[in-house]
Every structure is written in C-alpha cells, then in structure tokens.
C-alpha cells in the first residue's frame, strides 16, 4: 500500500496498526462522493491556474472514467488501501503519473472526508425521507379502508373511544415530524467544508464558492477549524433516526399488544410474522419486536457518537473516523425498519367487528356522560362525581352505562333525559360529530 504520508517516517507501520487504522473497508462506500468532490476540486484548481488546464482536464476525465468503471463493477473497490481517498489518488497516479500526484494540491483528507460525508448524508437522508413518505402513505391508505372504533388508552387503561384510523393518524403525525427533522438536518448541513484544508485553509488562491456550487451546496462553510471538525450533521442525523425509531418502536409496542389474543384487535399477515420451533400454535409478531429492539441499538449509536465528540479538542481528530461505522449502521437499520413497517401495515388485518364490539365495554363513554351533564348546566367537577358513582353502580350490577335504564340514570341526576343515549352509544358519539376534533364523515 502506498501511504499518502510516508515521507516523515523512517520505519514501516506495524501490520497490526495498519489494520487498526484502515477505514477503506467502510469508507469505500463513499466512492461516488469522493470522486465527485475530487472532480469539483481539480476543476477549480484548473480555473484558478493552480493546475494547468491540460492537467485539470486529464484529471477530470480519468476521475469521471473511474466513477463509471466502479459504477459498472463495484468489485474494483479492493486492495490494501488506508481509505477511499488513498484508493482514488492511487488510481489517478497509476493512470496519469505526475499529474495524478498533483490532485491533492490545496486539499487535505480532513476537508475531503467531511465533504464526502456531507454529500453522502445529504443523498441518503433524501432517500430516507422518501421511504418515510411511503410509510406515511401506507398508514393513510390503511386508515381509509377502516370503518371501526377502538378504545384509546392512557396508562394502558381504557380511556375514551376513537376511530381506529385515528390511532394510525397519530403515528402519521409523528412520522410527518420526522420528515421535517430530516429536512432541517439537510438544511443545516448544506454548507461546503471543501477548501478548509487540514484545518487552516491554504496559501493557494482557491475558489471555495466554485467548488460549493459545483457540488450543489447552498453556501461555503466559513470557519475552517469548524469545517474540518464539524460532525453535527452526523449527530443530527442520528437524532432523526432515533426519533423515527422511537416512533416506530411505540407503534410496535401498541400493535404487539393489540395482536395478543387478550386484545385480538389486529392480526399480522403471515408474511410479517414467524412461528415457534416447539409450539405449533404460535404466530409471533417478530417484525414489530425487531423494530422495537433495533430502536435501542440506534439510540445507543447516537449516544456513542455524542460521547466520541464531547471531549474532542479543535480541530480534526482521528476519533471522528468512527462516524462511518456508526452512521452506516444506524442508517441501514432505520431504512430497513421503515421498509418492514410499510409492508407490515399494508398487510395488517384489523378485526373491525371485534373492535366495534369491544368499545361497548370498559366505561369508555364516561367522560361523554359527564360532558352531557355539564351541557345541561352542572359544573364539571360535580358531573365527574355523579358519573363516577354511576360507574360504580354499573360495575356492581354488571351493566355498562348505556345499559342502564333512564330510571337508573336519573337516580344519579334528575337532569338526565332520554337524549342521553346519543352520548352513550359509541357510534353515535362519532356520527354526530359530538367529538368535534375527529372527522365524523368516517361514520
Ligand atoms: N479516514 C479518515 C476519517 O474518516 C479520513 C481523514 C484522515 N485524516 C487524517 N489526517 N488522518 O476521518
């Protein structure tokens, strides 16, 4: 392996150290961004007459050629190289001799690796955003096929009635915020570190605006110390992944519970469940459990990156190389979870009859009864007490509130009338738009 830095050294690097230090096995994934940024760099060097036009054009041509070759055959990304930057430079030297050796003029691997990662993160976050939008659409589509009510919970105790699709809409709202977070992350990172050099710029009269423009960045990142040591965009991305994973994990928890026999609200399709090697009757919600489990891993990766960064002095430190393993792992996992959840929700079977039946139990309409009394003129606290007593009566007599006769209800308050039953009948509560926050048109 030809090191990029051998001159100052008098003896060979230990084999163990080479293996410990290398990042090519991971950062080869940045090949497209590395070559693209190098094309921008040598184009600018030519225009600034730091390289001759002929040298610049030779490099542009060979870099473009290399990019096409790797596109056609990714196996070319092989060999005993320290990192992707060494690999690309070695290819240029092989093809162009001394001209290849000029490619790194007015540049360092420190600004190079940061620009590569920024380009990669930007591109991959856009793909993630598209995947989240597909997931959102799957939730919306599923919700539109449904026409059933559901208990909704606080403290996992039956609380009030909602359309089942309303639960799905809650997750849509969370995923929409995740899309927003991803966009904010892209906006914030959108400045070019290229030209920052190792840490303090360069004596060459480079044109940072030109490389920023060529690479599609919104602006130049001015402070060079900050530019080479900024990994906020990795941290921000990991926060996006963590937020997304927490949302998916909460969904997983809800639907693992809903798919238990005790609840029986939903059933996973066979394609997203697995069985037991011993218990023939089992159908386990493994897809959801894996999402819930992997969310722990992503939060761990985010914590790892924060911990790496928190004590680093300015500016670049090799610790930052760990960002690759962390980002790639977190990204791949998050994307896989989105895709699995999209398939899961598309094929999910919702037991609408069971749900419509179950909302009649558990005094889910108690709050509506209290509201009814308030609308008839009672202060809410008093209404709350009256309904509480009616619930105790119902429990003792094995009756739900809507099963109480008018006489029984009037024993608790004489202002109760025949019209109370529309406040007690779950479907009526929705149909009549009594719940003003929910779209009654579904019922
Ligand atoms: N592989 C390194 C990284 O990922 C590239 C930068 C190396 N720079 C250096 N001065 N050793 O961070």
Q: Would you count the extended β strands for me?
A: 6
Main sheet properties: 2 strands, antiparallel
Taking pLDDT < 50 over at least 5 consecutive residues as the criterion, the unreliable ranges are none
Computed CA radius of gyration, to the nearest angstrom: 31 Å
Helix and strand run:
HHHHHHHEEHEHEHHEHHEHHHHHH
Q: What would the average pLDDT be, to the nearest integer?
A: 94
Helix content: 55-70%
Category by helix and strand content: mainly alpha
Q: Please tally the helical runs, counting DSSP H or I stretches of 4 or more residues.
A: 19
Apparent shape:
elongated
- Kindly report the spatial arrangement of strands forming the biggest sheet: 1-2
Q: Short summary of the structure?
A:
60% of the residues lie in helices and 5% in strands. It has helices at 15-21, 24-27, 31-47, 53-72, 84-96, 98-101, 109-145, 164-189, 208-214, 224-229, 232-258, 286-310, 323-347, 352-358, 366-375, 380-396, 406-410, 421-424, 426-431; strands at residues 149-154, 157-163, 191-192, 219-220, 266-267, 349-350.
Folded structure, characterized:
The protein contains 19 helices and 6 strands. The model has no long low-confidence stretch (mean pLDDT 94). The chain has 443 residues and is mainly alpha-helical. α9 links the parallel β3 (191-192) and β4. It has helices spanning 15-21, 24-27, 31-47, 53-72, 84-96, 98-101, 109-145, 164-189, 208-214, 224-229, 232-258, 286-310, 323-347, 352-358, 366-375, 380-396, 406-410, 421-424, 426-431, and strands at residues 149-154, 157-163, 191-192, 219-220, 266-267, 349-350. The protein has a two-stranded antiparallel ribbon. The chain has a two-stranded parallel ribbon with strand order 3-4. Strands 5-6 form a two-stranded antiparallel ribbon. α7 runs antiparallel to α8. It starts with 14 loop residues before the first helix and ends in a 12-residue tail after the last helix. The structure holds arginine (ARG).
């Amino acid at each position: 392996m030809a090191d990029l830095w051998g001159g100052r050294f008098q003896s060979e690097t230990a084999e163990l150290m080479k293996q410990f230090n290398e990042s090519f096995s991971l950062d080869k994934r940045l090949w497209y961004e590395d070559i693209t940024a190098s094309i921008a760099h040598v184009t600018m060097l030519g225009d600034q007459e730091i390289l001759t036009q002929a040298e610049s054009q030779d490099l542009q041509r060979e870099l473009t050629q290399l990019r096409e070759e790797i596109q056609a055959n990714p196996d070319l990304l092989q060999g005993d190289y320290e990192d992707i930057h060494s690999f690309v430079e070695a290819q240029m030297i092989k093809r162009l001799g001394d001209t290849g050796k000029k490619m790194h003029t007015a540049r360092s691997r420190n600004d190079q690796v940061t620009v590569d990662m920024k380009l990669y993160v930007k591109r991959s976050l856009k793909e993630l955003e598209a995947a989240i939008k597909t997931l959102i659409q799957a939730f919306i589509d599923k919700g539109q096929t449904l026409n059933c009510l559901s208990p909704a919970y606080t403290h996992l105790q039956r609380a009030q009635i909602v359309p089942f699709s309303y639960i799905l809409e809650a997750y849509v709202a969370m995923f929409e915020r995740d899309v927003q977070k991803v966009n904010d992350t892209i906006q914030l990172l959108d400045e070019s570190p290229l030209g920052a050099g190792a840490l303090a710029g360069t004596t060459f009269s480079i044109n940072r605006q030109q490389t920023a423009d060529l690479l599609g960045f919104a602006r130049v990142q001015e402070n060079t110390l900050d530019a080479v040591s900024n990994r906020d965009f990795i941290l921000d991305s990991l926060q996006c992944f963590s937020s997304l994973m927490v949302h998916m994990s909460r969904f997983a928890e809800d639907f693992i519970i809903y798919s238990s026999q005790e609840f029986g609200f939903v059933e996973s399709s066979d394609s997203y469940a697995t069985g037991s090697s011993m218990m023939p009757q089992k159908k386990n919600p493994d897809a959801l459990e894996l999402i819930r489990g992997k969310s722990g891993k992503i939060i761990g990766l985010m914590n790892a990156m924060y911990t790496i960064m928190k004590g680093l002095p300015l500016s670049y430190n090799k610790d930052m190389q760990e960002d690759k393993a962390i980002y790639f792992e977190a990204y791949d996992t998050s994307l896989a979870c989105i895709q699995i959840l999209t398939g899961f929700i598309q094929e999910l079977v919702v037991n609408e009859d069971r749900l419509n039946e179950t909302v009649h139990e558990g005094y889910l309409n108690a709050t509506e009864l209290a509201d009814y009394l308030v609308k008839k003129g009672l202060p809410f606290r008093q209404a709350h007490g009256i309904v509480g007593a009616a619930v105790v009566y119902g429990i003792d007599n094995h009756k739900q509130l809507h099963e109480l006769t008018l006489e029984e209800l009037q024993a608790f308050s004489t202002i109760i009338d025949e019209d109370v039953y529309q406040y007690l009948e779950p479907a009526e509560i929705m149909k009549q738009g009594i719940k003003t926050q929910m779209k009654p048109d579904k019922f």
